[in-house]
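Input.
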Amino acid sequence: GFMPVGAPSINRDDIEATNNCGEHPHYDAAEKAALIRHYLTKNLASLPHPLAIAYKKPAIKKRLGGYALHFIGSPSGIAEAALIRAALSILGEEGHEKMRVDVNCIGDKESIAVYERELINYAKKFGANLGEQSKILLKEDVWNLFRNQNEEMMEFRSQAPSSITFLSSQSRLHFKEVLEYIEALGIDFRLAPELVGEKNHSSHTIFAIKSLGETAEEAKDDTLAVGYRYSRLGRRMGLRKEIPMAGVNIFAKEEFESSKKIYKQLPRPKFYLVQLGRDAKIKSLSLLELLRSHRIPVHHFIGKDKLTAQLSNAENLRVSYLIIIGQKEALDGTATIRNVSTRAQDTIPVANLPD
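Output.
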């Protein structure tokens, strides 16, 4: 469901606009700023939202390329869930088998401010025995607690308060929704309080996909992808109001760089997925992945709740069949298939749908 677009190029304005967002290979604010500028200049706001786009990242300055996926215009947890599911699918096709999703939430701007005060109090109260260099780093910016990888700092942050404890009620509800989606997808995940992003542009859910090696015993901390919400950058880049934006960067490995299969033209689906209700939306990502794994392309408007918007979209795309998941189907583990021209329909178990 992600639309391929050309990768936006980062210019000096993007770098200057994000110069207080820190430099970290996992949290690339300048790239996000370039995408927002592209969004404005190409008038992507005129397209139906939520907007799901993907592009191949070029290799720059010894850094390998990779892929970036973005979900724009949805405040719902479906955005993070779709990004996680798509990233896992891409990584799985690259040969990664044992993966885990680490996830945390730092909430909205107010939640982040409260959490920062708690971190400062923690550093003052328990940081007396830290080395001089660590003390200087924390005094400069308490978020260095999560940026520095020396053993002393890692040990100190393991006892630090968790950002989840200080979420606003709205942020807490959002994170709960994200976790429900992840659980429904059957994904192996863990809560990772050390994932806090960059305070000046990231917010809400932050996740990292890790490789676990061949066996759990040989587990290695290899970060394959990192995603988060970056809506706060929008106002800085000239958007009149804050638009919900979330993205994930998938980091390429050298051995995969030359063997990519790129579609010259996307396949034309015969099917359109219509989902009705919260439970159906939660089930829909698993259904899309099931069909994708059998190489069956499907149109959908997964971020939309309204039936009329979905049916109108299906009509414009002139598909032959609708796959309908409502409350009853979601509970029964079934799907209703409707022939658009004859209106004939049948309900079958989702497991039998690819056949």
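The longest strand covers residues 203-211.
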